[in-house]
């Protein structure tokens, strides 16, 4: 219990120290002050081997065995330098935030740049999963896998970048902090009710338009609601169903998606439905606005607007 | 790709198998035939399994496989000895690890065992060629280790290898030369190999085998002037117990540490270094009376020197001696060398007669004996007839053919019968002086035996063989022998192959002196030489000055480079124009002012302004460079212009 608390306190101290030393930024270049290096477990065994050989050489008064142990020592020093230079001046850039829907794994796109670096292990600090970049020469794009998260917006935790190159005797590592957010939007719900409500609202609003107006008919496309298929026309062309189109005036009028003040499962469900609706509306090229208990986004259209709306949903 | 799912590098297992096969070859001095076969069988099995891509065994299965073998080895402990058993276990560990190779972690353990096993083979082999072979095995292992921790796609770059050499070479060389050496901390188990040197008993007939061996015994380099060839008597053993046929070493020689000799007469002091091949005995070689000796060497009674443990590998040591008779140590020593044996009645009677004839005068008796050997028909031969029970009688009065041990043995018996304390000394006599390389090469066939007798409380050397065959002493063994006997000595030294071998032997000598023979005293001397060098302070001060300048220059360079570009450019412009814009005036305006003020140079200033603006506001590095060039070019002109 106490040891756990003690460890946590230490951990927090360490985090604070790291934060003051390496504040997060979009573009990190690993300099001398932020690369840590210590002998690995194998390195410790290697040191033991050197001592053993020194003793053996001394006791047999055998210069060649002594020489071997000295060569090992100098090789170890070289390995230390080499391990350091494997990370030194590595540049990591993050250009955009990571975005995903809840319950789907996310990735964050990193850009790595270095003349040459081998066997880089990249993971999140405190996570077991590490990914490997076997050989980096020049620039490369790297997809960092992130764990599954609940809806919300998270700052990217510190990365753990390590390598055992070139001889496994030393582990060089660094904790770069990148300025990026992980957005986790609500999971889009594909229930009938969600679609139905929009469609019904739309149809209700434009019931005055004649359903048989030829201008408003278009061939069926995947994703169109089966409710809008003109069944009467189906026998005439069985391979080419025709649907009623939601014509111009509908898109001209902004849709309002309102998230009521809810809590718990109900809120999550409402958000999921809203998410699906937003995506559908964006696909249809509609103009839509969003109102949540916290904020209100005026009607607009386009990918940027959708992203802002989804981010609002994530923050609800 | 995830980090913990890496497969082993390509061909890793094959390299490992190759390495282990070579190791089995190298370990031959320690491996009985059956064990060799067993190990090879295991290797073949593993090779077959890898060829068919069969997966690794679980550790449990391997334990079941190896446990009986380990037990088998333990049972052989008595025949093998500790050292060999350890080597067996190392090999078994390496070969067994092959079967469980699954992850890189296992492979790293294999690499570790390999390193240790390969380095251990230096216990057997220190010759230059094999040392390089073993070093290349270490290199191969290092390469395998690198492959484990490097990307599969990456090639080994020659540049990196060169860098590795350049960085590590001075390091390990310096460590080798300067890192403190310790004496052996504890006694290590040694090889059970039959000795090839002088034996502990001298039975005339046992040297014949040695005489035909061309093998190297030891090499000597003299720091002082080299003594005359007649004085090259390398003492190694003193035989004092005689049983009527053979001579044995007295038990008092197991005691150690004689006080250092103090007697220094006018005789010349000799300083020399010896490089001894392994002969699996403790005895070392020395000339005359030893005054001081390098560290691991111990002294023994009768002026002998010895090694603390058996010499199982090439060693080197330093001695200081005077060519002087060994003083008598105690009355007991005198009594010890007067003891007689009931065998050889004729010889003893001969001795008593000599004593009577010369009234016990030792010098006269010895001279008479030498004259006796010369005048009678005594011959020197490597192939004397076999002798019966009263061997000395038979030799002296019947066969009269023999080599050094026959003569020495007979002389000692006669002298003792005449009441003069005498003993037989075993060692080497002579050697081949290598004029170009300046060292003395002593071979096994230079093994020799002679006599020491007591005169005025000093042990005088008497070599009866010199009386019968003085060329043996002055020119080496070859000259004294007949043509057919000379053929007995290995006779291939004269052709080109022999010369090549000789050159190789010289190379080996330098390797031995500089690499294998480098020891604590050499290191101490090196330290002393280094500290005695007078120019240390000059060197240090000049290095310090260079360091200060370099650091200062680097600091200035980085400070300048990392300065904010607009500030730097502004500073350069101000410096060139020898003035500064007034407060509130931008650099652009300031330059424009110049352009207006000096219409002749308006084009120049407009260009400067343009470049400045481009480099500062558009971050154009090329423009910044051009601006700097321009300022440099027009430096003289700019200095003159005033607002």
From TrEMBL, chain A:
Region Disordered: start-end pairs: 194-221
UniProt keywords, alphabetically: Membrane, Transmembrane, Transmembrane helix
Segments traversing the membrane: 34-57, 64-85
Record protein name field: DUF58 domain-containing protein
Species this chain originates from: Alishewanella longhuensis
UniProtKB/TrEMBL annotation, chain B:
Keywords associated with the record: Membrane, Transmembrane, Transmembrane helix
Listed SMART domains: TGc
One family name in Pfam for this protein: Transglut_core
Keyword Transmembrane: yes
Residue span(s) of domain Transglutaminase-like: 396-466
Transmembrane segments: 12-45, 65-95, 115-140, 161-179, 536-560
PANTHER family in alphabetical order: PROTEIN-GLUTAMINE GAMMA-GLUTAMYLTRANSFERASE
Name of this chain's protein: Transglutaminase
Organism of derivation: Alishewanella longhuensis
């Amino acid at each position: 219990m106490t040891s756990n608390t003690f460890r946590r306190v230490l951990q927090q101290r360490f985090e604070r120290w790291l934060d003051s030393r390496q504040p997060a930024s979009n573009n990190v270049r690993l300099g001398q002050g932020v690369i840590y290096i210590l002998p690995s477990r194998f390195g410790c065994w290697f040191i033991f081997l050197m001592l053993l050989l020194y003793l053996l050489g001394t006791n047999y008064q055998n210069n060649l065995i002594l020489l071997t142990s000295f060569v090992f020592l100098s090789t170890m020093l070289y390995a230390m330098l080499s391990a350091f230079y494997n990370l030194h001046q590595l540049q990591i850039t993050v250009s955009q935030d990571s975005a995903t829907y809840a319950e789907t794994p996310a990735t964050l796109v990193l850009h790595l740049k270095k003349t040459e670096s081998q066997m880089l292990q990249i993971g999140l600090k405190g996570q077991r999963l590490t990914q490997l970049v076997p050989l980096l020469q020049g620039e490369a794009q790297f997809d960092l896998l992130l764990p599954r998260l609940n809806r919300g917006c998270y700052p990217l935790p510190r990365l753990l970048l390590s390598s055992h190159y070139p001889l496994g005797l030393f582990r060089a590592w660094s904790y770069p902090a990148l300025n990026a957010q992980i957005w986790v939007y609500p999971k889009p719900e594909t229930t009938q009710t969600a679609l139905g409500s929009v469609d019904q609202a739309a149809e209700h609003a434009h019931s005055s338009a004649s359903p048989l107006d030829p201008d408003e008919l278009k061939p069926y496309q995947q994703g169109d609601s089966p409710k809008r298929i003109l069944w009467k026309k189906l026998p005439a062309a069985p391979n080419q169903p025709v649907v009623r189109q939601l014509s111009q005036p509908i898109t001209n009028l902004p849709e309002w998606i309102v998230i009521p003040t809810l809590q718990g499962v109900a809120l999550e469900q409402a958000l999921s439905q809203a998410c699906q609706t937003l995506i559908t509306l964006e696909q249809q090229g509609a103009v839509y606005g969003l109102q949540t208990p916290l904020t209100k986004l005026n009607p607009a259209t386009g990918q940027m607007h959708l992203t802002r709306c989804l981010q609002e949903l994530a923050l609800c | 790709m995830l980090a913990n799912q890496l497969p082993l590098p390509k061909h890793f297992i094959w390299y490992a198998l190759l390495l282990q096969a070579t190791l089995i070859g190298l370990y031959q001095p320690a491996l009985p035939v059956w064990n060799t076969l067993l190990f090879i069988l295991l290797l073949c099995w593993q090779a077959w399994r890898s060829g068919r891509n069969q997966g690794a065994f679980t550790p449990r299965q391997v334990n079941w496989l190896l446990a009986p073998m380990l037990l088998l080895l333990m049972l052989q402990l008595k025949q093998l000895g500790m050292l060999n058993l350890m080597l067996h276990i190392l090999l078994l560990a390496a070969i067994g690890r092959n079967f469980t190779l699954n992850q890189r972690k296992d492979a790293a353990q294999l690499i570790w065992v390999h390193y240790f096993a390969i380095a251990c083979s230096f216990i057997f082999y220190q010759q230059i060629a094999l040392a390089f072979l073993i070093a290349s095995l270490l290199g191969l292992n290092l390469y395998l280790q690198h492959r484990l921790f490097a990307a599969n796609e990456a090639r080994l770059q020659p540049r990196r290898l060169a860098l590795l050499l350049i960085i590590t070479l001075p390091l390990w060389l310096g460590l080798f030369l300067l890192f403190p050496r310790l004496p052996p901390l504890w006694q290590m188990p040694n090889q059970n190999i039959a000795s090839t040197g002088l034996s502990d008993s001298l039975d005339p007939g046992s040297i014949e085998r040695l005489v035909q061996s061309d093998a190297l015994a030891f090499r000597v380099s003299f720091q002082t002037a080299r003594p005359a060839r007649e004085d090259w008597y390398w003492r190694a053993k003193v035989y004092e117990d005689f049983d009527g046929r053979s001579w044995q070493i007295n038990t008092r020689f197991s005691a150690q540490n004689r006080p250092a000799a103090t007697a220094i007469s006018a005789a010349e002091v000799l300083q020399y270094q010896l490089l001894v091949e392994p002969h699996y005995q403790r005895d070392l070689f020395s000339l005359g009376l030893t005054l001081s000796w390098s560290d691991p060497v111990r002294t023994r009674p009768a002026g002998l020197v010895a090694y603390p443990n058996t010499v199982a590998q090439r060693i080197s040591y330093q001695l200081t001696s005077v060519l002087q008779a060994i003083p008598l140590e105690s009355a007991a020593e005198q009594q010890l060398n007067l003891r007689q044996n009931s065998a050889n009645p004729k010889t003893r009677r001969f001795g008593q007669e000599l004593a009577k004839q010369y009234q016990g005068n030792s010098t006269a008796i010895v001279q008479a004996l030498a004259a006796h050997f010369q005048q009678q028909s005594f011959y020197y031969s490597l192939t004397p007839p076999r002798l019966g029970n009263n061997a000395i009688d038979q030799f002296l009065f019947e066969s009269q053919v023999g080599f050094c041990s026959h003569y020495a043995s007979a002389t000692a018996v006669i002298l003792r019968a005449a009441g003069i304390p005498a003993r037989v000394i075993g060692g080497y006599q002579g050697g081949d002086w290598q004029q170009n390389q300046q060292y003395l090469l002593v071979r096994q066939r230079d093994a020799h035996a002679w006599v020491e007798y007591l005169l005025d409380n000093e042990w005088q050397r008497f070599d009866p063989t010199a009386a019968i065959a003085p060329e043996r002493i002055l020119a080496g063994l070859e000259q004294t022998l007949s043509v057919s006997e000379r053929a007995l000595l290995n006779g291939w030294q004269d052709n080109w192959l022999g010369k090549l071998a000789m050159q190789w032997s010289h190379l080996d000598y330098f390797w031995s002196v500089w690499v294998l023979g480098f020891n604590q005293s050499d290191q101490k001397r090196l330290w002393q030489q280094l500290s005695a060098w007078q120019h240390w302070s000059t060197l240090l001060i000049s290095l310090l000055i260079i360091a200060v300048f370099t650091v200062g220059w680097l600091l200035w360079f980085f400070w300048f480079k990392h300065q904010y570009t607009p500030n730097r450019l502004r500073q350069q412009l101000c410096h060139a124009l020898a003035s500064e814009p007034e407060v509130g005036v931008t650099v652009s305006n300031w330059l424009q002012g110049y352009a207006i003020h000096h219409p002749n140079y308006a084009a120049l200033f407009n260009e400067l302004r343009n470049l400045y603006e481009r480099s500062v506001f558009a971050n154009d590095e090329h423009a910044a460079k051009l601006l700097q060039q321009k300022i440099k070019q027009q430096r003289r002109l700019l200095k003159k212009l005033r607002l």
